[in-house]
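Journal club side-thread
Mid-discussion, someone asked how the predicted structure for our own chain would compare to the paper's figures. Pasting it here so we can look after the session.
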Amino acid sequence: MSTFVNMECKDGFKYLESDSDGEVLLMLHGLLGGLSNFDAIYNKFSKDYKVVMPELPILELPVKDVGLASILKFIEEFVEYKGYKNVHVLGNSLGGHLAQLYALQNPDNVKSVILTGSSGLFENAMGNTFPKRGNYEYIKKKAEDVFYDPAIATKELVDSIFETINDRMKAIRVIVTAKSAIRHNLGDRLHSLKKPVLLIWGANDSVTPPFVAEKFHDLLPNSTLHFIEKCGHAPMMERPAQFNELLEQFLNNLK
């Protein structure tokens, strides 16, 4: 599936939405991620769920507005615009951070939360020297380090990140958003997130290491944690079959 088939661009929102009338599964991508990161989930669940993937305006916001608060506002406005109710919200990396913020701010409109490699407590990101412009091999190595199997970092993926980092204004937005995420530590708020939470984590995640998942599990009162072996920061990309099986079991248990 091409993630841009049936892409809607309306009223300032760019998103992919499946045709199903089922419950809404809202998926939020990471800082340097994209909608294609969720291809396997879309293919598996789009017939039974209304799978929705908005393109987050991380790289398009006015610089003065860059940060998690503005992106969260965008998500809230998008959900209201579409009229979605009682959503399952799923996020990877920064998208997981935003999923938590959305659930904390809008508990009456959330049925469950699914986090995978989420920020919100601790993240290594790309290191203190990132982004390093103009050095393709550096960016390639950093992209490969996100995964247990470096081959997952395809040339297309690396090229996309390299293009972003070599655009000065986009690079500034990346840095400011990453710093905003660090400031928005959720450790003292997670006890109030009472909704069912599924944590799916790569056992070899170097960006948000396994101890982060365990801390989330400790702090979230209604959470379930699963580790996937030989897997890095994006389990839905690197181990899609296992990820989808765990997600399906979780969603079925909520019916």
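Post-session note: The mean pLDDT is 92.
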